[in-house]
Amino acid sequence: MTSFSNKTCYNSTIMTVYIDIIFLENLFMNCIILFATATILRIPKKILRLIASSSIGSIYAIISYTSQLIIYSNLFLKIALSIAMIYIAFQPTNIKIFLKELMIFYLTSFTFGGVTFALLYFVKPQNISFENGVLIGVSPIKIILIGGIIGFIIITISFKNIKGKISKKDIVCEIEILLDNEKIKVKAIIDTGNFLTDPISKMPVIIVEKEKLTNVLPKTIMENTLNFINGENMEMEGYLSKLRVIPFKSLGKENGLLVGIKAKGAIIFYQGIEKFIKNVIIGIYEKKLSNNNAYSALIGLNILEEGDDYNEYFRYIKN
């Protein structure tokens, strides 16, 4: 182990400090902070990236402790370090996602730091030193481990409770529906209790008010939805193979049926993110979904999980 002597003395003895211990202490704390950040935001965790990002923070801690240059304690340099760690760990795709990840990273760091210092205050270990913002010694390793676990539990429980209080504004998105050569954009609400699917193809169903589809679907379909449900034969202008009868249950209606039509796809727009869903059924709803026209479609979480672009914003809503 590489070591050097710390200037601080306890009981007339010089404390020996091991650089690799400082590195491992900071590596562990950085890893658990990044892991907690990814858990809160429901970001896929890539262990090698988390370790690489944490290692950079640990190297900075060693340089900050051993260097006599004031620049290593500079606030802007620390912010730049945080930005680099976020980019390496999570690879944010736009500035909005990056700022959210950075905010949660700082909040998590402050929480873990507060828990650790609280434990130090109560335990009051004698064989520790605090130099240039770096805790060193044998006891801090145990305290950091305990503090990390307690901090992780506190912040994940706190955010879970906060996420349960999402307002309706946060679960409204826009969707663009692609039907052959026609397309229509409507506002939709993300309905956490909606898992409606086509019973045959198992494709997810987006429920849209009939009025919104009037100009993009043939008149014969729009005027004969009830006849189609009743099994009557009629000319559907080449749409017959795309039509479905979807059974559903809702409050006040245990055994409902609605006509669905297979779409080319749908694009979901939510907080700057675009997500394309290929296999989807559009359910034609006869009545109004919103009394104040705030939205005219319902989209379920099963639709948001389709495809390869499932991201932390949709995970945020789910949890």
Outline the structure in words:
The structure is a single chain. With 319 residues, the chain is α+β, with helices and mostly antiparallel strands. The protein has two domains: 3-157, no CATH class; 168-318, Cathepsin D, subunit A, domain 1, CATH 2.40.70. It contains ten helices and 13 strands. It has helices at 19-41, 47-66, 75-90, 95-123, 139-163, 210-213, 219-223, 225-229, 301-304, 312-318, and strands at 3-10, 13-18, 128-131, 134-137, 172-179, 182-191, 205-209, 243-250, 253-263, 265-270, 273-277, 280-285, 297-300. Strands 8-9-12-7-13-6-5-10-11 form a nine-stranded mixed sheet. Helix 1 packs across helix 2 (47-66). The longest helix is centred in the middle third of the chain and has 29 residues, at 95-123. It is elongated. Mean pLDDT is 75; it is low at 1-15 and 307-319.
At a glance:
The chain is of the alpha+beta class and about 325 residues long. Helices cover about 45% and strands about 25% of the residues.
* Strand order of the biggest β-sheet: 8-9-12-7-13-6-5-10-11
Structural class: alpha+beta
Question: What's the multimeric state?
Answer: single chain
Number of helices: 10
**Approximate shape:** elongated
**How big is the Rg?**
28 Å
Unreliable segments of 5+ consecutive residues: 1-15, 307-319
**What is the total tally of β strands?**
13
Total separate domains: 2
| Biggest beta-sheet profile | 9 strands, mixed
What pattern of helices and strands is seen along the backbone? EEHHHHEEHEEEHHHEEEEEEHH
Mean pLDDT: 75
N-end to C-end Cα span: 45 Å
Amount of helix: 40-55%
User: Approximately how much beta-strand content do the residues carry?
Assistant: 25-35%
